[in-house]
Structure formats: structure tokens, C-alpha cells
Amino acid sequence: MGTVTGRRAAYERARKRRSTVVATVSSLAVVTAIVVLVPKMPRWDRVHESFFNGERFANSLPRLLDAFVLDIKIFAWSMPAIVSLALLVAVTRNSRSAALFPLRILTIAFTDIMRGVPIILWIYLIGFGVPGLGIDRPWNSPLIWGSVALVLTYSAYIAEVFRAGIESVHESQRAAARSLGLSSWQTMRHVVLPQAIRRVVPPLMNDMVSLQKDVALVSLIGPIEILRQAGIDKSKFANFTPYIAAAAVFLLITIPLTRTTDWLIERQRRRTTGTRIS
Amino acid sequence: MRKLTISLAITGTLLLAACGGSSSSSDTTAAAGAGTGNECTSGKTLAADTLTIGTGNPAYSPWVENDKPESKEGFEAAVAYAVAAELGFGDAAVTWVRTGFDEAVQPGKKNFDFNLQQFSINDERKKTVSFSASYYSTNQAVVALAGSPAIGATTVADLKDVKFGAQAGTTSLEFITNVIKPSAEPFAYDDNAGAKAALEAKQIDAIVVDLPTAFYIAAVELTGASVVGQFPASASTTPDNFGLVFDLDNPLVSCVDTALAVLKDNGTLAEIEKTWLSDKTNAPVIAVS
Known about the structure:
Structural class of chain B: alpha/beta
Mean pLDDT of chain B: 85
Largest interface: A-B, 32 and 34 residues
Low-confidence stretches of chain B: 1-32
Strand content of chain A: under 5%
Radius of gyration of chain A: 25 Å
Distance between the termini of chain A: 23 Å
Order of helices and strands of chain B: HEHEHEEEEHEHEHEEHH
Number of strands of chain A: 0
Shape of chain B: elongated
Low-confidence stretches of chain A: none
Largest sheet of chain B: 5 strands, mixed
Radius of gyration of chain B: 20 Å
Helix content of chain A: over 70%
Mean pLDDT of chain A: 90
Number of strands of chain B: 10
Largest sheet of chain A: none
Strand content of chain B: 15-25%
Oligomer: heterodimer
Order of helices and strands of chain A: HHHHHHHHHH
């Protein structure tokens, strides 16, 4: 028995070594192709000057980091609002009470309309339209109404994520909770939601990464955040390098965020399935 | 037919002289209708015997009227046809393409011989594109709605607590941050349409634009708006000189520069300016101290 396990382990080690070698060789081939071949293209020097200009990069970066503070602020105050509103919409949509039927219809209309219309239109419509009705400063700030547009759009998407989570909880869980004497709301609050939310953490993180970039859209109605600042520098110097610099700043945030998401997905899969086929 | 041939021959000779560096004036109207370039432009245009000119999408008044550059109406449309005529291109040999700002400055091959949409000439931009000599210089101006705190300002100090907006990436926005230096950070928009919407929503008190645009917005586009004033040209840290944009090191630049010099000397440019742009002296001057 022991020899079989040993041979199998040795075989698996060999397979693993082989796949490591294949992965390394193919990665090297791709990188070499890009590094060697791209600079040989006829107008590479122009592209290099326009997109990867070290001087422009260093010149823009401090201004971009300054402007990025605004992105973080918008993200920070929008995210809790989005999650709360999305949860409210999802729970309402999954309610079973006959009396709540009109509210269910309303939430369906809300998710359909908010998701169906481009986010840029919402930002213009709410960001310029609502203050245009005659609201005075400071309550007509584009930061407020731009954030409202983001919150409404994103909560429609995230409500659907929560809904998927809620619906993935087996009906027997509700049945068991109700038979223990829990009310419909208590069942939702203590039995269904804790399981549902845990299941949707990975897709939720995915939407957070997306939101982290979409906060830049608020700049359409005035505030100068990182992407707008990059655009201003781009126009001034007729050079696209500031966008590369802005992308680098975004990556500083999104890469840890996406890695965490992957780690969460992996952990969840290990927890729920127990086996892994390579 | 014979008359046309003769007049073309005359224009050709005159243009040849112009390209040679002498500043003789020529009859620009003679080339209208026919003509496919002169000695200088030969072999240098994107498409043979055609002058391909780029402008904004859309192009705005008073630079191009009704977004129809081929109508020759509007300041830049008129300048483009005058330059074309001076280079020996008849109206039929001129084609228009539409590009955004970014398309005009991207590093790839250009789809136009030159592009005009109020590009300000600056040294930084010269590293990625080539500019012709300036065909127009403008001052920055402030536009505000009635009741705005900017109304009645006569010095920059009066504008310190005004909330400003401008089109992103323009000399106007730079002017706000570098010269006016208001206490509140300015807002920036994709285009002047956004800036106007913000004015109406009272999110900003005033916008800064170039003077001809200011007159146009106040007179046509925004009811209740007025030009508060213009800043003296000397106030700009970066003087706003508009130039035609070319692919970097395009050999056509010297031909166009010669043509522009002729148009400047013989008064054609001044005349076009008088036809399409408002009188600069109409706006009060805001002192910069």
C-alpha cells in the first residue's frame, strides 16, 4: 500500500514540475515577444513618447495622487449606502407577504431601469438635473448628486447579487426556521441572510473593484478627480502618459482587492467542496 | 475655360513666389473651384491633389457655423478655405474629416493634413504634434448669469470668492488655477455644454472661456448670461495662440506657414476675423495686478 502511495506521489510531483516548466517557458516566450518585437514596430518611438514618457509620468504623479483622495472619499461614502440600499431592495424583492406586492413591483422596476440605462446618463441627469430644479448651495453640489447617481445605479446591480444569494439558500432552511417558531422576518434576518451574504462575498468584491473605477465618472459633472486630472495633463502636454500614471495608481488599489477576492473564492471553494482537481 | 486657365496660371506663379519666401500678396479667390495644390504641397498631402482638413466633432460656433465647415461659414471654416486657396486648392479639392482632440494628438498616423479646432500652441505639445504659425490670438473672458457674485468684477481680486468652471484641458482652466487663483477649487467639464449646465444648476458662479466663445455663449446660447469682462493678453501665463495641428514634422507645415504669412500681410485674416468674430473691444477689461 505504502509503495503505491509513494509512486503516486512521485508521479504527481513529476506532473507538477512539468506544468511549472511549461508555465515558465510560455510566460517567458510571451514577454520576450512583447519586449523584443513591439519596439521594432515602425512608429514605436512615437508611441513610446506619447504613452510611456518617464518625465511626464513623474511630473503628473504628485498631482494625480492629490486628486485620487477625492476618488477614495466618493468611494468611502458611497459604498455603505450602496450595500444598505441593495440589501433593502433584495430583501423587499424576496419578501413573501401579499401586502408587499406593490413594493415588489417597485423594486423590480427599480433594478430594471437603473441597470438598463447607461450610468453616464444617470450622472448627468441627477448631477445637473436635480440641482437645476432650484436647490441652493451647498446642497446642489455635484459631489452629492453624482454620488446619489452612483449609489442608485450600483445598488441595482448589487441588489441582484444579494437576490441570487438569498435564492441560493435552500427552501428547507426556511421551513426549518419557521417550524422552530421564527417569524418570516426573523427567518430572513437570522437564517437566510447570514448564509446568503457569505455566499455572495466574491461577486460583491468584484462589483467593488468596478465601483472603485466608476467613481471617476463623477468628474463628468465638475469635480476634478484623478482621471480628470490625468485628462487635463494629457491635453496640456498632448501626451497620454498621465493616463498610464493614473492607471498605475488605480492598480495599486484594484490588484490587492482582486487578489483578496480570488483568495476568498478559493477559500470558500475549499470549504464547500473539499477536493481540488488540478 | 481659357480665362480660368489663365487665372490659375497667375495664381500658381504668385504662389510659387510666396513659397520662395517673398511676401507678395496674391488673388486668393482665383483658385476657388478648381486647383489641386501648388509646387510646395505637391506630394506632401495625405491624398494626392486633395487637402484633407480636420475639425471638431461637433464643431462649435462661432468657429464653424451650424457644424458645416464645407459651407465656409464661421471663423475657422473661412480660415481653412483661405489657407487652401492660398495653397492652390480649389473648394472641390478640400475634404473634411472630424476628430476629437485626442484623435488629433494620438501618436498614430493622422487622417488629416491639418486640423483646426482652437488648438493652443504650446512648447510641450510640440513634442508630439507640429503647429503652424498662429492664425488667431485670443484673450480669456468671464461669463456669468445675472445675480452671480462675478457680475461687476473689475479686478482679479473681485473674483477670489467666485466658484469657477471651465472646459477640462483648456488654456481657460489653466488660467483659473494660475492667474485668478480663486479660494474654491474650480470644476472641469468635458465641453462647454457641461459648464453651461453647471452654471444653470448654480453649481458654479462663472465660467472662463476664450473671448469669441464668451460672446457667443452670452448672445446665443445662454439666456441671462453676460460677458463680465476679458483679461488682458499680458495676464496669461500661456498666451492663447491658435495654430493648425499637423502630424509631427509634416513637411506641409512650411507651405502652410507661408500661406498664413501672406493671408496676414494682405489683410485676409483680419477681414475673416471681422466677419465672424465679435469686436474684442466690446468687453470691459478685468485688471490683473
